[in-house]
Amino acid sequence: MIVVLKQGVQEERRAQLIEWLKAMGLGIHISDGDYQTVLGLIGDTSKVDMDLIESLDIVDSVKRVTEPFKCCNRKFHPDDMIVEVGDVKIGGGNFCMIAGPCSVETEEQIVEVAKAVKASGANMLRGGAFKPRTSPYDFQGLKGQGIELLKIARQETGLPIVTEIMSVSDLHLFEDVDVLQVGARNMQNFDLLRELGSFGKPILLKRGLANTLKELLMSAEYIMASGNEQVILCERGIRTFSDYTRNTLDLAAIPMLRELTHLPIIVDPSHATGIARLVPPMALAATAGGADGLIIEVHNDPMHALCDGAQSLRPEEYDALSKQIMSIREVVAK
Ligand code: PEP
Ligand code: MN
């Protein structure tokens, strides 16, 4: 349920109302926008008398929110959420460019790629240290050592680092990571999501291979309901009957999620297609479709990459693409 307050309500009256609602055992999410204050009521609102609340002179309107997601619901929070990572802002008109290799392999590799993507305009560095691989015989990532190499690349370039967490038991290794990625395969690892809710770092939450938008939002809800509002959603393609691409990029997810939630929405055209030459057109389409940013795999030597070489752009290809992205941004931002 949401309660929209009238403009210019006295602080004392507002506090009284909030206390009264809390006394009914409800959690209250307060959103102070430029034009209105919205109180989001979380919990069992079935016994709340809507008419009584609506009759109060400080209340403009009361609406039931039928969706099961509350904290990430745009109705609770009409203004776009802006996630801040150091100086980098994501959402609310701020576009983020995350780029880097699928996996961290060596210091030379990650530092070289970091410098190259930064020069092309990337404002965050990605790189997997813990890799969720389909086969147990494939390269599983450098784990803790990979995180150390990412920190070196951050020191060299100033780029904040984004890397995937797979298990709650590794959380202590992520204290100095800027953004924790929850990969597609872990989107519904609810214990992990709950833990990340109290970890206090921005979370990049990727859509599962076969998950609906509602399920994605319910996973964001786990993190937010546990106390962490800093969630970035990522559309990375879903499993369909497409035979020539790794996944199917669900572009309509961008405007649909935009309606449903105030959280930033970014797109991963690399995992969505699995083919490097398809990455630029999909990156441009996602930008035109209103995404708040892109996460793109870039490798300095894709032919010898330990993971996902086929979908990795070379630094010069990323450079050319980023110029085109900027041009599209100029049109979309108008
Ligand atoms: C990744 O970003 O390296 C990754 C494994 O992505 P996803 O979880 O979307 O497959
Ligand atoms: Mn990858």
In short:
The protein has 334 residues and is an alpha/beta fold.
Label this structure with key terms.
18% strand, binds phosphoenolpyruvate, alpha/beta, 10 helices, binds manganese (II) ion, elongated, 334 residues
Task: Explain what this protein looks like in three dimensions.
The chain is an alpha/beta fold and 334 residues long. Helices cover 32% and strands 18% of the residues. It contains ten helices and 14 strands. The strands form three sheets. An eight-stranded parallel beta sheet has the order 13-12-11-10-9-8-7-14. A four-stranded antiparallel beta sheet has the order 2-3-1-4. α3 links the parallel β7 and β8 (124-126). α5 (190-197) packs across α6 and α9 runs parallel beside α10 (315-332). The chain binds phosphoenolpyruvate and manganese (II) ion. Phosphoenolpyruvate binds at residues 102, 128, 132, 183-185, 206, 236, 268, 271.
Number of strands: 14
Overall form? elongated
Distance between the termini: 34 Å
What ions, cofactors and ligands are bound?
Answer: phosphoenolpyruvate, manganese (II) ion
The parts where pLDDT drops under 50 for at least 5 residues are: none
Tally of DSSP helical segments: 10
Mean pLDDT: 96
The largest pleated sheet is described as: 8 strands, parallel
Helix fraction? 25-40%
Secondary-structure element pattern, one letter each: EHEEHEEEEHEHEEHEHEHEHHEH
- The SS-based structural class is alpha/beta
Strand order of the largest sheet: 13-12-11-10-9-8-7-14
